[in-house]
Amino acid sequence: MDLQTLNRLVLYDGNSGALYSKNKNRLLTADEFGMVIIYDNSTKKKFKMKYAVVCWQLAHQKILPKDHKILHKNLDEFDFRLRFLKAVHRDLYNKIQEAVRNLDGGLKVVQHPEDQYSYVLKYQLDGVERREVIYDITAAKKREMRLRLKFAKIITANCIFE
Predict the structure, then answer these.
(1) Which of 70, 116, 123, 143 has the fewest other C-beta atoms within 10 Å?
(2) 56 and 17 Cβ atoms separated by less than 8 Å
(3) What confidence tens digit (pLDDT) does each residue in 119-160 have?
(4) Using an 8 Å Cβ cutoff, are 144 and 109 in contact?
(5) From the centroid of its chain, how far is CA 113?
(6) Sheet containing 128-134: which strands, arranged edge to edge?
(7) SS3 70
(8) Neighbouring C-beta atoms of residue 94, cutoff 10 Å
(9) Which of 53, 52, 54, 50 lies closest to 22 in space, CA to CA?
(10) Contact 78, 94 (CB under 8 A)
(11) Residue 47 in contact with residue 38, Cβ under 8 Å?
(12) 124 with 100: CB under 8 angstroms?
């Protein structure tokens, strides 16, 4: 859907993050996948778009480039206020999501399944699950803390928290 049609059909309030249909003066809500359906009376067609993309495009009055995604800077996927929406390149978006997954339990030190004197450090890096076998628990914990710091730096460089 082009920007002119979007402006004709939908109104965006950047402070509250709400989208309103101009045809029926009603609030449009996102479904569980973050999508919204916009109905065009003139063509009798329905358009299904990402709620965050519609908000960003209406606020900035330009189309989101194909190689960009919308990052919710507070990491709340259902908070559509303008100050928390940011267009970032897909690679950076994937890197941030990977860091969040690692800090939410993906990065861990576990006992080696066969050798009782060694440990396995599991994490995800560049879309691949990595496993490192380390033979000392203090070295394993030290490596885990270094990786936690690395992932935390990625998140704090791009996200804000209130």
Answers:
(1) 116
(2) no
(3) 999 999 998 999 999 999 999 999 999 999 999 999 999 988
(4) yes
(5) 34
(6) 108-111, 119-125, 128-134
(7) strand
(8) 14
(9) 54
(10) no
(11) yes
(12) no
